[in-house]
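Readers outside the structure-tokenisation community will struggle with the description of the input data as it stands. I therefore recommend that a typical entry be quoted early in the introduction. An entry of this sort, consisting of the sequence and the corresponding backbone structure tokens, reads as follows:
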Amino acid sequence: MKLTFLGTGTSMGVPIAGGFGREQIEPDPRNNRWRCSAWIQSEETSIIIDTGPEFRLQTLRAGLNHIDLVLITHEHMDHIAGLDDLRPFCYKQNQSMPVYSTREGVEAIRRRFDYMFGPDRYSGAASLDLHEMTEPMTFRDVTITPLPVRHGRVDVLGFRVGDISYLTDVKSIPDKTKERIKGSKLLVLSGLRWRPEHPTHMTIPEAVEIADELEIPQTYLVHMNGFVNHAESNKKLPGYVQLAYDQLTVEVD
């Protein structure tokens, strides 16, 4: 199974619009971060986690030309703004795209992209088949397990796909979810910044504590802001916890 990080940045991306704060970013391409999204490929299945504002560009950059399933972690726009870019995949594959999320996520998609649904649906819109995900399911050759977490007051779903567990925009992880994560070979976890603590996101030290607790062989951090320097941060982190970067691809046996 293969995981490609399509984007690893915060809700505003790195650098942010207007280039504000660009001076604090060292000229390492790994410090340029598009909004968080991931592409998981098994032998039979192509899965996308989140479709942010750069999703069209992410597909072009990664050479992504087929999607079987879309998983949406939650309803914030940096995770759903690119849903309209599923149109060419629906056209080319001649099918509705199955999309799974939280109940609030499904409701938000219907509300914000109302032109895709109902009797007044625009005929050229993407065709989305929305589902609330509450229990593990088998899709083709993979087992997908929802991993409920909290992002401040917002319910978020992480996803375990085979032996890969992916969680972004997380502040707290219930014990039941931790049990579902244990035994994974690869964990993806958000780590916003080194300090100070944040009310709705884990800091990097908090993410390392979770990685240590769950004893996953390899953890990659995502959703870093522009104050996090890739090379310097990785030197400070243990080898089993490292920052991901856009276009990084890892394989899990």
